[in-house]
Amino acid sequence: MLAKHVVSIGFVGALLGLSGAALAQTFNGTVDGQAQTWHVLTKGQQSTASISDDGQGVTMVVIQGHAQPSYVIKGTITINAALKNGEIMGQPDVLYFPQTSMATVYSSVAQQPGQFSIKVENQTQNGAQLVGTYKGKLYRTPGIGQTPDLNDQIEVSVNFDVPALKMKP
Fold this sequence. Notes:
9% of the residues lie in helices and 57% in strands.
């Protein structure tokens, strides 16, 4: 799952062509107790916050926040979750990139789940408002497909209330 989301962070940024200006909505939280503001980037009909439906009651939610109001890897956080008929399915995949490359990443792990809540509000054919929180520990993962180091961890707390665009599955 980590490989899919690392690829998606690069894909979303490239898709948006976000080396320049884009509209940004913010959300807040902490990383190891340090206050952080993240920016959801939107350009045209593309956004780093999105929802998509499979037509059978499963909604995929992606919230990708950047430490600056433009596409940068360092300080980016992503929350990926699946909902079935509005209920959370399992645990979300949460990633935090502390450096300028995607080689170093802190990720959530199933055996140490965080606390996650989400509501999909004001849903229209174009998108919805995503409101929720995540609080938990993320563990350093040395590379794609490798085992997280449970001794190297950070704690994150995120509160979000952001618009998400509807994507086609």
